[in-house]
Amino acid sequence: QWEAAYAPGHGGMVHLFEWSHAAIAEECEKMLGPKKWGAVQVSPPTENRLVGGQWWERYQPISYKLENRSGNHQEFADMVRRCNAVGVRTFVDVIPNHMCGGGGSGTGSGGTFFDAGSLDFPGVPYSRNDMNDNNCYTSSGNIENYGDANQVRNCRLVNLIDLNQGTEYVRGKLVDYLNQFIDLGAAGFRVDACKHMWPGDLDVIFGRLKNLNVRSGFKGTERPFIFQEVIDQGGEPITANEYTGFGRVTEFKYCMGVGSNTNSLKHLANIGPDWGYLSPMSSVVFVNNHDNQRGHGGGGHVVTFEESWALKTLTTFMMGHDYGEPRVMSSYYFSDPDEGPPGWQPNGFNGGFGCENGWVCEHRWRAIQNLGMFRGSVFGTGVTKWSEGWDNQIAFSRGNKGFMAINGGSSNWSGSIATSMPDGEYCDLGQGDPTDGGCTGPTIRVSGGQAQINVPTGDSPVSYISVSYTAT
Ligand code: AAO
């Protein structure tokens, strides 16, 4: 439950926020698979309340039927199958904490009736007895004080109807909800709002999940990869550490940690437990996420696509460094933080990895697109030969498997840098792509423990090489 069952040579996950199942399947085949990304995190695929097209309406479950604006059951299944076929795993965003916001009734995105006033969800079915309202003692019924662990877990998060995971019936329904994805070939879960559930209940639920599906190509012994969303930036009684016994946890301190060091990259050398963060095996790390890039869920300065230069250097660092399991956010442009996704999917494969229709596609950016290849090929090594240039420049190796140099300065960074890579000539994956017998971009020569680098500024201020991608 702590290890992602990535295909050999693949690494890192991309959150394709609000992409349709059909678009993700194509992305796996044309981009994520060939570029050896480990997995895609998909937006919640289950039936949701239709509020008004906002991105967040998908965090309001109505039933566990797979039908909403990303697609239906068959399209979901087709996506997982096609992604697995090219070595890319699917991690599903699941919402076991709650159903939709209180009040009103209607039909969800899959046509299922619900009555949020009388707490009736016949599609599951859940009714009043399955909810936590009787265990909540705040006057509003909502969480009013994050300093009180009881109300954080038993009261409603922003009026979302709170399920009681302590009952056998609810546990059974949640296990079935998650297992349906394992049956379809998914390899893990991003579990929403875990701070708002009791750790003991989650331990039981995750413990009952099936092993990954043999019919989807897994060995039969692998556990689903679990990463739980717990926003712990200190100052509250509930801590991320309470959740590490049965899966990984999102390390939100990392967003602030890297975000406040864009102009002093050298400080990032020992980011991790030395900074009071979760252990490397317990954490999922990211530069920004779908909430904090738009002012939801947690504060502080986070670097997003709007600071594209800093995002490139920090994402390269995150994917290259050995602390935590990294996730890259892939976004769409917005002016209103509530705004849902563009009406058309990204496309953009006409002659390269462009991106169209209002999507950002950070994962396709020149600096970032080959980081899956790098990450996948340095698995099992630690950071070695850390070095620094004079102008916000850092370089390091991953044992004898890889080397990267990040130029956070204002001019080209060239010269001879110590590395633990073996002698050879390698494709600079930050500047171009490997081809059958060579590289489309510049190469980096290593000889006698020295790499000859020339890292530009501008569009792609990073260079990285791996023993798996040589120039000849
Ligand atoms: C929508 C409407 C609501 C309406 C509701 C029901 O916006 O007005 O009441 O429907 O009708 C998303 C949106 C919500 C949306 C919801 C459902 O963000 O706006 O509500 O879908 O449609 C807490 C949780 C965390 C959660 C985060 C948003 O702990 O789990 O709030 N994130 C997840 C998802 C998110 C989703 C949900 C959960 C719900 O990623 O997309 O919501 O499924 C503190 C606490 C945190 C708390 C934040 C925000 O953070 O520590 O636990 O997150 O506050 O309230 C400093 C502190 C930091 C603190 C921060 C902000 O930085 O260090 O700890 O300040 O105060």
TrEMBL record:
Key words of the record: Calcium, Carbohydrate metabolism, Chloride, Disulfide bond, Glycosidase, Hydrolase, Metal-binding, Signal
GO MF annotations, alphabetized: alpha-amylase activity; metal ion binding
Cofactor: Ca(2+); chloride
Catalytic activity: Endohydrolysis of (1->4)-alpha-D-glucosidic linkages in polysaccharides containing three or more (1->4)-alpha-linked D-glucose units
Domain of life from the UniProt record: Eukaryota
A biological process from GO: carbohydrate metabolic process
Known EC number: 3.2.1.1
Keyword Metal-binding: yes
Similarity comment: family membership: Belongs to the glycosyl hydrolase 13 family.
Protein name per its UniProtKB record: alpha-amylase
First-to-last residue of the parent protein present: 14 to 485 of 606
